[in-house]
Amino acid sequence: MTLTSPPPDSSEAPEAPTNRPPSMHRARNWMRRPYARSIMILTVVIGFILLPLCWLIVAAMNQSGAPASPIMEDIETTVFVFTLVSIPITAFVFAVLVYSLLGWKHVSGDEVPADDSPAIRTNTVGVLIWTVASSLLAMFLVVWGLMELASITANSYGTVSADEQPGGEKALIVNVTGQQWVWTFEYPQHDGLTSDILYLPKDRAVYFNVTSKDVLHNFWAVELGVKIDANPGAITQTGVTPNKAGTFNVRCAELCGLHHAYMQTKIQVLEPTAFDSWVRESGGGRTS
Amino acid sequence: MTTATSTLEASSSTVFGVEVPQPPQHGKPGGIMRHLNFGTGLLTGIVFAVAAGWITSALSSSSATNDTFAPTEPEYIYLAGLIGWVIGFMLGMGAFVGPLRWVTGRDLTHADAEYMAGKDLGIRRYFKFTTDHKVVGIQYLVVVLGILGLGGLLAMLIRTELGATWTEVFSPTFYNTIIGTHGIAMVIGMIVVMSGPVGNFIVPMMIGARDMAFPRLNALSLWLLVAAVVCLISSMFVGGIQDGWSVYYPLAAQAPPGMLGYQLTIIVFAVSTGIASVNLMTTILTMRAKGMTWSRTPILVFGVFAASLMGLYAFPFYQYSQILALTDRIWDTVFFNPVQGGSVWLYENLFWLLGHPEVYVILIPSMAVALEIMPVFLRRPLFSFNFAVAGIVGVVALSGLVWAHHMYMTGWAPAVNYPFMLSTEMISIPVGFLVLVAIGTFWRATVWTRLPLMAIYAVVFNKMIGGVTGVYLSDVPADQYFHGSMFVVAHFHYMLMGAGLFGAMGGIAFYFPKMTGRILDERIGSIGLWTAFAGFQITFGSMFVAGLQGQPRRVLQFDDMFNISNWISTIGAYVIGIGMLIFLAAIIYSWRSGEVASSNPWGSKSLEWQTPTPVPLENFAVLPVVTERPYNYGVPDPYEAELEAEDGDRTSDDRERAGVS
């Protein structure tokens, strides 16, 4: 049938006669197919089975006391959100696999089976839905990632210099030096006080100048969510504001030779007064 | 030039009914090649290695200096020995006979070429510099199984050390050696596991060709691989590769002489890969059967072509990085020495410019084999062939633009983290296309539950997990926690082993009847596959947990909090080991005394299955002509028929099917 002009009042006619069923009608028909409904139900069931992973993953990350900084909180939120948005698509793929194994027909044996599968060479609607959905998902992940990256970058490097922190409080600077196979932490604002345990004050910005004396190391303050390579001949900078007192871990996350596994130490995040007394007791002299 | 005294006359041969003029025949067909085989290669290689080492030793001891910064004498001897080995081995194999005869004016005749292709040589052709693509394919399969076996053995040692949390089973030196060697052995093995055996044996037949475009280069690429692997193994006896498979500088500068073994392995392997890539690409571009347009070309051919293309542009970066590293070591250049103005970031960039395309070099052929298997066992066309091609093209296009996501945490250039995060997350779209094609092909199909297809379920399952965890790692904030942790290790094992190796196992099971003439024992093979699959989930599922808890990778001791996840991982690893041994037993048993296969046991419509088994020397007596799209299986969709009855319209596919059948 060829229409020479649009049918009058087509917007108001609820069931305008056309030569194809309206898309809703087709979708409803499709949902009536026995496998379609089963796969939808399976997807939901598998999705709910996978759902606890969102919390379990974060729980595993929190096992040794994380999150102890806004950066780590950002990281955990990101992981949580990514897990959540991955679940529907994962559940759908798993549902098709499961239904293929349990629902659709099977043949076994050595004989080549008869060609009785439907020869679907493509399905425009299905392909479009998949492409649009996966592109939107990727777009969401990118946008989310860029925003979170901007956020942790702001938290790491700060938007103001170390001397101009809000509240007149100066940021603490720690020079981190990796060498095979120990970490050394130097506090230049405190007469070059050095320590092999990283003492940090709570709720105060800390900047790390990270370098190495020999090979590549990676300064990983696990529960603070800080990670950056220690490169010989270069200083890399990052920073964090710890917001939880306690004992945390520094581990080397870049293979650095024989005793790489043992290149770890502790972080003590102290209340500001306790930190100041540690500095005085350790001979740090002038405090900030 | 004509010489009246010459008794040699120019002749001609009849090749497939065509008279081809031939150069004069010197002696028996094959000439010196009649006397060369793997044994002479080994012998010449060892003689050359010893001679080169001895000469270097004599020279360097006479000119010894007090310069303590110079490399020690054993380094020079070892390097000279390795170079001597590679040249001697290739010479002894007869790799240079063709060019040398051409230079001396005694070009190979048709009879010589047929001898080199292994005509009438029986089992001996597998131990020679044989040019027949089917022989090379089998040789690749055996070599790859050896490499993967070595890597697997080292993996068992790694897990033994990590499982025994109460003690150090191995010294840190040996532990670092096994993680480095495991890494590079598995990477080499996985790069060639599908492109080697299947790419060489199957692809020429699949496109309806009689051999590869450059048969002698084909043999050269294989034997260079063998030479390279011997270099790799030798490194374990001179200090080993203690710096992971990425051998970052400046740590690698501290390494014992074993590092030279690594560098030479990579330099030689890159040549082998380059040759193989050019050969496969030329074959695919120029030698497809008449009528095999791109839309009639099976998806595996696209996959192998894509892998070759990525290998061709990516491997030179790796090769250069190792050449520069070698000169740093031997001649005190300072490309990667930060103290004297070199750059460790330069090394990292060169390395990852290979390192990331390399994972697609591994993955794409395995995914393509999976997509090749599915239509045959589901008896239906591949769902949305064009999307499968688009997915492969998309992966190739993006593969070279994502390498710096391995360097998010290096501090090299924090600003480039933004674009690399974008490109890395974009790659999930074309990879998603491949998943769509897979599940679309499963959709409503009758499942023929044979081993090759069942492996694909494992592949798609693992690929989803690997893909989702890869999204975390592509994201800079999340990577700030996961980089360098066991989470990364678990993720890439899901991709390379879970999707890559299980796909390769399916591929081997699928092509086994054509390659060996026997069916891979389904029962033993399935037990092996599913045991390995179960162990795989245990090992790497638990390793994800260790990574989430914060365990760095490449450590041999760790905090007590990681004990439980490591114990579980180790138990799982032994289960994988047992499963893989069972699968290997199935291969060996079936190869020796399995059920004899018919020429087309799966009822496939692809060209490679239309040849007799065993495949004759030149595959097709008459070259085939392709007249239809691949994967013409199945019946018209009954639901579509319903809709058509309503619509009174016919889809283009139906018109095509009517035209075909």
Account of the protein in words:
The complex is a heterodimer of chains A (288) and B (661). Chain A is α+β, with helices and mostly antiparallel strands. Chain A has two domains: 23-104 and 125-156, no CATH class; 171-281, Cupredoxins -  blue copper proteins (Immunoglobulin-like), CATH 2.60.40.420. Chain A is built from six helices and eleven strands. Chain A has helices at residues 23-32, 34-50, 53-61, 70-102, 124-157, 272-281; strands at 106-107, 172-179, 182-187, 193-195, 198-201, 206-212, 217-221, 226-230, 236-240, 246-252, 264-270. In chain A, helix 2 packs antiparallel against helix 4. The model of chain A has no long low-confidence stretch (mean pLDDT 85). With 661 residues, chain B is mainly alpha-helical. Chain B folds into two domains: 28-62 and 69-130, no CATH class; 131-593, Cytochrome C Oxidase, Chain A (Up-down Bundle), CATH 1.20.210. Chain B has 22 helices and three strands. In chain B, strands 1-2 form a two-stranded antiparallel ribbon. In chain B, helix 2 packs antiparallel against helix 9 (215-235) and helix 9 packs antiparallel against helix 10 (258-286). The longest helix of chain B is centred in the middle third of the chain and has 35 residues, at 344-378. Chains A and B meet through helix 3, helix 4, strand 1, helix 5 and strand 8 of A and helix 6, helix 12, helix 13, helix 14 and helix 15 of B. Strand 1 (106-107) of chain A pairs parallel with strand 3 of chain B, so a sheet runs across the interface.
Describe the secondary-structure layout:
The complex is a heterodimer of chains A (288) and B (661).
Chain A: H1 23-32, H2 34-50, H3 53-61, H4 70-102, E1 106-107, H5 124-157, E2 172-179, E3 182-187, E4 193-195, E5 198-201, E6 206-212, E7 217-221, E8 226-230, E9 236-240, E10 246-252, E11 264-270, H6 272-281
Parallel strand pairs in A: 2-6, 5-11
Antiparallel strand pairs in A: 2-3, 3-4, 6-9, 7-8, 7-10, 10-11
Chain B: E1 11-15, E2 18-22, H1 38-62, H2 73-93, H3 97-103, H4 110-116, H5 133-163, H6 172-195, H7 197-201, H8 203-206, H9 215-235, H10 258-286, H11 299-331, H12 344-378, H13 385-399, H14 417-426, H15 428-442, E3 447-448, H16 451-474, H17 476-482, H18 486-516, H19 522-549, H20 563-593, H21 638-647, H22 652-660
Antiparallel strand pairs in B: 1-2
Helix pairs in contact in B: 1-2, 2-9, 2-10, 5-6, 5-9, 5-20, 6-12, 9-10, 10-11, 11-12, 11-13, 12-13, 12-15, 12-16, 12-18, 13-15, 15-16, 16-18, 16-19, 18-19, 19-20
